[in-house]
Amino acid sequence: MNRSASILLVEDDQSMLNGMYDLFQMPGLLEKVGIDYAVDVRTANNGQEALNIMAEYMPDLIVSDIMMPVMDGYEFLNKVQENPQWLHIPFIFLTAKGNREEILDGQLRGANLYITKPFASIELLELIRSQLERSFQRQFTNQQNIANLKKGILQILNHEFRTPLTYVTAYYEMLSDSVNRFPDNHNFQEYLRGIQAGCVRLTKLIEDFILVIELRTGEYKSRYQRRAKLIMTINSLVQTAVQKQGEGAVRKGIEIEYSLSPDLLPVYGEPQGLLAIFERLLNNAIKFTPANKNARIYITTETQDNEVLIAFRDEGIGFPQDIRYQIFDLFFQHNRGVMEQQGAGTGLTVAKGLAELHNGRIEVTTQEGVGSTFTVVLPVFSGSFEKPESQPEKPQATILAVEDEASLLLGLQELLEIASEKYALTVLTAQNGQHGLEVLSQHKPDLIISDIMMPVMDGFEFLQNVRQNPDLIHIPFIFLTAKGERQDRHRGLSKGAEIYLTKPYDSDELLQHVTSQLDQYFQLQSIQKQNFDSLKRGILQLITPDFRLPLTAVQEYSDILASGLENVRSDEDLKRSLRGIQEGSIRLTNLVEDFISLAELKTGETETAYALREQPIYNFGYLLCEISQSSQYINSHEYIKIHCTVQENLPPIYGDAESLRDGIRRLLEVIVKLHTGEEYQELEFSVTQIDDEICCNLTLPTSLSENELRGLAAIFANNDDTELVEAKDYTPSLTIARSYIVLNNGRIQLTDAKQICIKFPVYTAS
After folding, report:
1. pTM for this one?
2. Strands, DSSP E only, in 292-438?
3. Which pLDDT band holds residue 671 (cuts at 50, 70, 90)?
């Protein structure tokens, strides 16, 4: 029995509370309804007591009365809903308030189930089991989504950073080798092109990441305000984008066709920002159009309803309709396993951010296997630089309606599309459960409304199929049926339907339920999106403008060689250029490796690797000495030496030797960097046991400055690495060092201005 559940019961009638509690102490009864795992039950006599319990104990499910002293069930539910950490917890009202209006009120307040007293014990337990099962499945799906996002981000970073970096380093080595051995080697230009291609690709990636940061922090907005002006030449910007991206289309045999309106009205904006949008959308169209001599990309411009439309239509692979909004998310990539070379998922994010900065938007239509159209929509300049006021648009939502009687289905569709006050609803339809599953294979609605009695596949079987699909587990489900018997209602709710309504139904009541269920659904989706965005922001904040310096250096030196190779091949200029490329390449390599290591820490990948490799380390002291002697960086500084002394017969510590080795090496290299000069200096590194700890003392030759002390102390004490953009150049490496040491149960202390101590607990087999 690996799984367990925790339940909070809230009821002011002590005998009723005791009776419900006793139900969960009957293993035979629990197993009869399918609860074959441990259940921990806590109790409270009112909403306030329940909140006090939840401050220290998060239940998997809540069952609450409504009429209670101090804090009633309604107020308690409101408090639960106000806390984002509790929104996922299923909430069941169990109450004597049982007339139609009271039930509707309780359901619309957001309770997952509304059960009236008196109740049948077995039915209550079945409904609780159903809610728990669905909650566990939702949590598992969310965890899988987060894990997949982390995995996807790391795959992107590893591939998109390391691949172009390989071009730079590998081609440099071949170029350098050719200079030494074959002065007249004709491969020089090919090697240089490889270096430059790697630089261009890596530069674009870094610039896109930094641009996303600037858009999200508002930094780009001030630049936009300085540069924005009246633009009469949208068509010329489109043509410039084609000129800059056209080579990629030519290589794939793709023809670009124009249909540019000569009568476009002016817009207000920043030319470079608009050009960046057009370039990225065109690049996207080229990237996802298979190489084909007959393939085409169509670009059109027109003025329509006081808006200028610039459309990029391709005949590429397309993508599912239900991800047309996700494709603008940072790091999101559809079907990356097949399309390995599709980039880092930044281009559309940048394009969307820039379009919105221009008070515009990007609209998408697509069909798998047919192609996609991305249309930039910009407001026509109205004579005012202020953003035009517009009526707020209703949020969009999609509903799948499943009903076998055509007239009822049409009536339901028209009701939803016309009468909804809060949401602009798109209604998909199906005639039975099987047809509904076929629709769900192509679309992901935000809500499902289904009849029960239907041919081919009835509503119960349809719901069961929906609830068994992890991709659909979050979608709320409303039964709308003529089957009004108590056992039918119980069966529908116990199988996972949120609402059970009987025909003939009250249209206002149905619309209220639709709005309430969509509100809850989007609120939960928003919380998950915030978690995703938080992770993405954490990765973005690891990007540092320091990448630009070595990239620029490598590019400049390779440009020098490319522009005058015949004249510089045998003189000092050639050596200087090669040294510049080499130094830039080394610096780039270090930056990329630090960035990916920080990203692995941020996503938890490092902890996963640690768990696979952790074991007793018996010769830890000698491991540290080996690190201090084998570091190429330390050994390259002739004025710095490290003396290492190790106490004999040291007991083992527990951890991962690989991450420990890297962490200690990074720490030593930062200290060496701080003490590098023209005078000979020695560092003492001693490893001893003090009580139940292994202490590694690093004694410095000279005292650290106050500024250095403050910087090191802040990094050693703080687990938040979000300020790396403004930090010193050694901060990323030292942050990684600290994180690796902490991961191995160690801690770092600044004993004084000349001594750093790292302590690890002694390992005991018990």
Report:
1. 0.67
2. 296-304, 307-314, 361-367, 371-379, 396-402, 424-430
3. confident
